């Protein structure tokens, strides 16, 4: 699925995006994950990829030294900047995580992605790892949070492509449907991929979310 199609999907659901965090049980898991993210990124200069409406940005900003919250979608950024939490340590910028053009001279010690890794094709992992390494350098800290597949909650997989990427059919507010790339990597798959480029790879899961932290080699 093309990147612009993914952006189009999130533009269409921007106004209702955070409704997912109000779902019973998921809300508690999301709060627990947000607390862990906040603690993990304390005192870091953070580049956030795919900040969306700013749900995770709010948690990061509590303890981080600085946050550059980025998204490819201007509508998402507008919503994020309207949140009451926005503090002096948070800036926003439009950015494509697959082809990042970062502010010249800006330094980051950590990168965070909430809900973005599941939208990266397996064949693009090497490309994204390269961007992370160029952005953070050796010793850079990476924190990812994403969705687990939860029976009777997660939309079913509509198809799987030749590379093993899975896709869902999502309904939009206007009643139309759109295909969305959504991968659910196993623990062994994630650990194998990240261990090739990072050390101290740690992975944990609650019912609705997985969280991975690592230090780039």
UniProtKB/TrEMBL annotation:
GO annotation, biological process: methylation
GO MF annotations, alphabetized: methyltransferase activity
Organism: Undibacterium cyanobacteriorum
CDD domains referenced in this protein's UniProt entry, alphabetically: AdoMet_MTases (cd02440)
InterPro entries, per database record: Methyltransf_25, SAM-dependent_MTases_sf
Gene3D superfamilies with a match to the protein in the record: Vaccinia Virus protein VP39
Name used for this protein in its record: Methyltransferase domain-containing protein
Domain (Methyltransferase) ranges: 46-140
Pfam families named in the record: Methyltransf_25 (PF13649)
Keywords, comma-separated and alphabetical: Methyltransferase, Transferase
């Amino acid at each position: 699925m093309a990147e612009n199609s993914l952006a189009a999907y999130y533009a269409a659901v921007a106004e209702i995006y955070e409704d997912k965090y109000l779902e019973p049980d998921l809300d508690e898991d999301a709060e627990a994950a947000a607390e862990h993210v906040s603690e993990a990124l304390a005192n870091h200069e953070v580049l956030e990829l795919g900040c969306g409406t700013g749900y995770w940005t709010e948690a990061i900003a509590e303890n981080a030294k600085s946050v550059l919250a980025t998204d490819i979608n201007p509508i998402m950024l507008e919503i994020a900047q309207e949140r009451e939490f926005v503090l002096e340590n948070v800036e926003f910028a439009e950015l494509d995580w697959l082809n990042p053009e970062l502010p010249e001279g800006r330094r980051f010690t950590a990168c965070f992605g909430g809900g973005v890794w599941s939208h990266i094709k397996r064949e693009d992992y090497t490309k994204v790892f390269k961007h992370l390494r160029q952005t953070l350098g050796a010793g850079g800290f990476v924190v990812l949070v994403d969705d687990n597949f939860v029976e009777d909650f997660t939309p079913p997989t509509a198809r799987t492509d030749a590379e093993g990427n899975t896709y869902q059919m999502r309904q939009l507010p206007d009643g139309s449907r759109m295909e969305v790339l959504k991968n659910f990597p196993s623990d062994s798959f994630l650990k194998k991929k990240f261990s090739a480029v990072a050390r101290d790879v740690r992975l944990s899961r609650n019912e609705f979310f997985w969280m991975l932290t690592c230090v780039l080699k």
